[in-house]
Design goal:
- The chain is mostly helical.
- It has a single domain, classed as Hypothetical protein, domain 2 (Endonuclease III, domain 1, Orthogonal Bundle).
- The protein has nine helices and two strands, in the order E-E-H-H-H-H-H-H-H-H-H.
- A two-stranded antiparallel ribbon has the order 1-2.
- A hairpin with a 5-residue loop joins strand 1 and strand 2.
- Helix 2 packs antiparallel against helix 6.
- It is globular, with a radius of gyration of 17 Å.
- It comes from Agrococcus carbonis.
- This is DNA-3-methyladenine glycosylase I.
- InterPro entries: Adenine_glyco, DNA-3mA_glycosylase, DNA_glycosylase.
- Pfam families: Adenine_glyco.
Length: about 210
């Protein structure tokens, strides 16, 4: 069974059906649009830290990540130096990976630099596709797309690190740029960005 109906009568994918933390994240946050710089910088950072780990691990450490990285305020993280890196590497509450910590600081500086042009939010959302996947099963959900490959390439060009195409597709799923909720899930088409049948909710509004 690809969707599991909970005690509340709501259908969810298996990954979000049992662990209360993951269920609450799925019901209230995953796939909802995030359009502010801080929110996107946080999620970009957490997706990079998640690489090679379970998302549940990252969610459980999220409060510690926020405390360690100044609430993911890009200006503050951009000022981090060697002492901050040493502090982060000693912080058991987060994922202590030197490359990912360095990438987060580098990405904060790149985020600040982007304000001189379109800004992080506008850049990331400019890669929203015209259609979104229509998955019946977890196996139908892609791990990359033409847009995530292009976004990865553009972010790297702008000085970002640890932003590979798979990580960027996960980011796009998490912040509503694509809707990969399984067909039949109670969350399918609820973001206001996409309709349940995979069309952009803003299609035709300009007309």
């Amino acid at each position: 069974m690809h969707l599991i109906v909970g005690d509340d009568g709501r259908a969810r994918p298996a990954w979000a059906a049992t662990d209360p933390l993951l269920r609450d994240y799925y019901d209230g946050e995953w796939g909802m649009p995030v359009r502010d710089e801080r929110g996107l910088f946080e999620r970009l950072s957490l997706e990079a830290f998640q690489s090679g780990l379970s998302w549940a691990t990252i969610l459980r450490k999220r409060p510690a990540f926020r405390a360690a990285f100044a609430g993911f305020e890009a200006d503050a993280v951009a000022r981090f130096g060697e002492a901050d890196t040493a502090r982060l590497m000693a912080d058991a509450g987060i994922v202590r990976n030197a490359r990912k910590i360095a990438a987060t600081i580098q990405n904060a500086r790149a985020t600040v630099a982007l304000r001189e042009s379109e800004g992080l939010a506008a850049l990331i959302w400019s890669f929203q596709p015209e259609a979104t996947p229509m998955p019946l099963t977890a196996a139908d959900v892609p791990t990359q797309s033409a847009e995530s490959i292009a976004l990865s390439k553009e972010l790297k060009r702008r000085g970002f690190a640890h932003v590979g195409p798979t990580t960027m597709f996960a980011l796009m799923e998490a912040v509503g740029i694509v809707d990969t909720h399984l067909l039949g899930s109670h969350r399918r088409g609820t973001s206001g960005v996409w309709t349940a049948d995979g069309r952009r909710a803003d299609a035709g509004r300009a007309a």
